[in-house]
Amino acid sequence: YEAQLATNNVDPEVKFQYAWCLTHSKKISDLKKASALFEEIFKEGSEELKRDSLFYLSVAETKQKNYCTAKKYIDAFLSVESTNVQAEQLKAYIDKQLKKDGVKGMALVGAAAVFGGATAIVVGTLVAGAALGFALKRRYK
Known about the structure:
Blueprint: H1 2-6, H2 12-22, H3 28-44, H4 47-63, H5 67-80, H6 85-139
Helix pairs in contact: 2-3, 3-4, 4-5, 5-6
């Protein structure tokens, strides 16, 4: 890939293989590069490469925990190849993660509301106490 890139003439199949290798990395930078390459391949490649790029875009986005984006890609892939077992399994995993993240998100919002309410009570109590203190100080001067 690098040699072809240097000549500014990269075969889409070679680009696909390189991007595929990057999806096996644990580095986020490699996964982002894989996503970018698969997007390029989707725009310029053959129909087969476009279809496969959608699947691996979903894989790369899933590994980056970008589940909404991954779901968009896997849904597009399944609209073309609805009986692909691997894609169905990936979609189930993505849906599970989205649900789990949704529950976590609701818990965080709830915790923030409780914390915010508790903070408001504490601040309100301090302000009321300070006002009472000033009032009493004035009265007994």
